[in-house]
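Fold this complex.
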Amino acid sequence: MYCLNEQLKNKIEFVNNLLLNKYEKILSLDKQILRRFIVDKVGSIKKLERMTSKELMKYAELGGILGVDGSRNRLGGAYPHFIEIYQGLARCSIHKDKPVIKADFYTPLGVEENPNMLEDSREEKLKSDKKLADIEVEAALEGIREFNPYAVIMDGSIIRYDIASTDRWMELKNECEERGIILVGVTKDIKTSIIGEELMKDKNISIDVKFHDRELLYGVLEYGEAIFTDIETKKEIAGLESAFLRSSDSPTVVAVDILQSQKEHLEEMARLILTLTPRNGRGVPLWIDIVDSEVKIPDVMIKSLLESYMDRRLLEMLFISERDKRTM
Amino acid sequence: MKVVGITSQHEVYVGTKDRNFRINEFLIIEDPYQGDLMGEVVEANAYNKYIPMNLHGELADSSVLDSLRAIGYNIEEDTIYIARVRLLNEALYPVEAGSDVRIPEFSEVKDIMIRCSVDEGLVLGVIRNTDHMAANMDEEYKNLLYTYENGRLEKQKEIPYIYNVKSMHQYPHIGVFGGSGSGKSFGLRVILEELMNLNIPTVVLDPHFEMDFSKIADYIPKGERLDYSGKFKCLQVGTDVGVRFEDLSIQDLKNLLGASGALTDAMNNVVDILHKKKDSYTSFYNRLKMLSEAQEEGSIDRISKRIEESKTDLERQGWQQRLELYLNYDKSCPYSSVRGIIWRLNRLSNEGIFSKDIREIENGLQNGKLIVVQGSTRILQVFSTYLINNLYHKRREYKDAQYRREACDYFPPFIIVTDEAHNFAPKAYECPSKAILKEISQEGRKYGVFLILATQRPTLLDETITAQLNTKFIFRTVRSSDIATIKEETDITVEEARRLPYLRTGDVFISEAAMGRTIYARIRAANTTSPHTENPFDELKGKIEEDENKFMDIIKDKLPINGDDFINVIKEIEAETGITYTIDAFEEKLEDLVEKGLLVKQKTPFFNVYKEK
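Structure:
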């Protein structure tokens, strides 16, 4: 039995009260009031229907749907003694036997070291993100060149590709626009606060804290409902259009991003995503889950890969942290 | 197909994306170091990583799977198939993971599947899940039989299971176990048909009156029907066969009497005292009868008086004999016990047991026939004791004489078959037939006398005998105590034991000591059918319809029948057919036909008129 430290318990209670205080307002906010506010100030709420198999069949004829996802494994300890392995996968629904796989790595040891150690961790995060974004975009690029699909669904918000991997992203975006391939991203972890900002602006509702959309939309939409925003958001400035969608019985929503130039396909893509998502699931399309499970490599596998193909001395010296050797 | 995962010397996992595995299927593992290894699938699984069984999480519902299929992705193609394969012979080293696996050719499995030629063995069925290998099977093994599956006759697609009857010399006796409706009786029928094909002398104890082979199964195609009528004989105890009283030992006699009602110690004593060697039924019966009559008189004086009063010499002689018996036996044989024995003896005699002998059975065996001895369980129990003892000792005498190089009449080796064997050799209590069956189970091999014992309760069968059954046919068994017995007595594996309650009718595990492993087989379609196959409810319906049709035929030309004219119609019918009806019964029958819609009733002010429809 663990003996809980009294102080720890108190701290947790403190956190709970803190959060309760902050969220009291939205917790007490009536669902109908919020829905009305969204319709008035943000955009329309629309009930979407699942696609029929006839409609879906059309996609198979037009080249299928390309699913893209990436994975990142990290082995080792603190900076700079670690190595990260990235893998990107693009899989077309009608060419299931020919997946496009891209792989890359990153370790701070391979490059010249930054003299300023304090900035390292941030820099390192950026580099890591870039590598991952690069590899996903590359997989997507090769996927569309090889399969010429009807649409590309990427796991995660596509805005992050714009931020982390600008050059390649522009290449992918231009190519999709030129060839008329629809490019969408599906995000489970919504970090925007489009509605939150509008709420703050509103004088009638006295909310002075900026809440995230994820928090505000929790349980507000019904299954199959989507919000198409009318106002100009940060995403739109980056050339993207987006919608929120409750794609399963789970009360959280997902965000669907699409290129500004392909805006007219947003509703269609939202419906596609709704159709491909198990109703009792987490809200992520099964197709993305399949690609995700395929691209993910277990840590054990990475370790045995490194053990097999790397000099044992180097591996022990550089990447096996003391923490890994602990047995308790 | 490849070997996957951790392997051992005797078990490996085989995985593939292309085909599903079947249990009991044979596979060859091409180990690069140890050469080809043969294995049998003992467990088969299929798994799709995208459709996990997750009680708490999400489950891809069918509409989503359909949607995926519509956009061109068939998730079912990601199913992988895994089989647990047990090697037939243990390897020297663990099997190399990643070894290729393939389906064997017939020539590679021939030796382990087929142990004897078609002409010399019992072709009992097919070995399940061997159709892949059966394709390039030698011609002689093809089209030997039909199987009956899902209500249809199927051509033979798999490797035949041929029981090597000669192996009984080393591995004697067969057990046939299975619950009711499991196909046990059919299995027994097929075994008997095959024994007849080989003209092996066989005695069948048939308490169910079902082992009749004269009715050819109508599902067997015309040209391929076999006629067994010359090869078997049904004999009923009491009608066709019986006991020769003179041949009975005292113990046999007591067993027989005990079969009509348990004997008390006093009764046993009466038989011991009163039965003399070489007694015929009449001499023994008379002795009993006279003693009882003397005892009814009650005293020496009264019997003496009877002697004096006798009008004829014969009568006087009779009473003198009675007096003698009275003097000798009255003290040791109480009247009630004597009466008891008389009563039991009468009962046996009325059943006809003492009026026949077993010569017909002996002759049949000499001619290589299958003899079916029918009777109630009770009477068979006793008769079989006498019969088997007799036959076994005849065979034994012949063999012993042969060893001693003496001359003796030939008596052939034979097989004894019985259903409900737990009645003849029960575990818990002593029973006359048990001793002889036990003796044969232990020594019969030496003399060429073998047992085929069928029972639905192996747990109730005598353990010494069960242990001697070297081959066991195990049909569906549901009772856990029986499954436990089977597990103990055979080399059946845990997985196979788990499948026992779910076996389909006619599917059987064959555990053969000669093979050293269990075979999963299906019994072939029998060439003949049991006389009891008609459903009793169908029979009832048929009978009623038959009666109606008969009555319709009789009254057809009398129609229309007027309600005031019954008496004349009945008279006419009686004159024509000899069948008499009462007026009430006749009217009731007509009403019945009206109800069934075969006649129409028209009401008039005076009477009803029955008309044709």
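Chain A has a mean pLDDT of 84.
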